Amino acid sequence: xxxxxxxxxxxxxxxxxxxxxxxxxxxxxxxxxxxxxxxxxxxxxxxxxxxxxxxxxxxxxxxxxxxxxxxxxxxxxxxxxxxxxxxxxxxxxxxxxxxxxxxxxxxxxxxxxxxxxxxxxxxxxxxxxxxxxxxxxxxxxxxxxxxxxxxxxxxxxxxxxxxxxxxxxxxxxxxxxxxxxxxxxxxxxxxxxxxxxxxxxxxxxxxxxxxxxxxxxxxxxxxxxxxxxxxxxxxxxxxxxxxxxxxxxxxxxxxxxxxxxxxxxxxxxxxxxxxxxxxxxxxxxxxxxxxxxxxxxxxxxxxxxxxxxxxxxxxxxxxxxxxxxxxxxxxxxxxxxxxxxxxxxxxxxxxxxxxxxxxxxxxxxxxxxxxxxxxxxxxxxxxxxxxxx
Length: 389
Prior knowledge:
44% of the residues lie in helices and 12% in strands.
């Protein structure tokens, strides 16, 4: 382990990346959900699979749930099951995009019946949070319109504000409402929460326990995502990340697969803004789930990619960079940043893992564990978990 890496190694110890339960169910493309042998059939099996990621990386000790996909009769039993596997239950994600009643919207809809149904669903999610011990209620809305004039955009914003305020009043003192934005899809003309500014405006009106979720795949091509990270951290409203990767739209691919330099730049701003400080309230989560690849190793790869770019971001010589920036030395400042990005930390990370009782190569360790063959043999019959689409 070289001296530069040794200086930042301890900072890697507190990294935590939450996994999405739905990543272990069946998914695929926008047009087809593909089945895979060994896929979990219920939330208990999803958690068992997610625990494999943590077992081999030491980085993923919690699992986010999606309601109603992960509804169970006994959440105490699910919580105990997670603990038995060495993980915990994390963020509760709501679903207001698959019921027939939400065809024209949910929390922002003009129809008060649809709005009330969506509010009641979030009340149910909060009840689940009390049972699972979850801190965050994450809300992503498919609400929007497809054609100019289809609905009144101003009225929909007012509806949304009122709905969120009702939900916010219901969350506990130690819980947070996390609002996620997305610039388009499934709505194509306008989306009711399309960008960070709209999300910020809505949560700022609610209070301190309302924050923004930044999904790295929810932006128009060419968007400077690291600027948004900086601004939300500056404003104290960056609540969480959904990390994934995309080539064109919301592809939900393995983190860093399309643009590892962008992931690095994001992490540079996270470190710079205090979002990686020990004890930070900024939550890291994956939303990598359009998998035609094997599910568990795909999640392992994403987690490792986040860790690698975090390590490179920590290697930035902040003092030298600040001096170059203040003196307007353009080339020196850029060179300092690029030096950290091009630093190969893979061997150092392997040594870091071994020093903490982990296998140097988590991907190889999982492949050699025999876990996949076992679940393929055991999980025969029943209905495989998926998106319900």
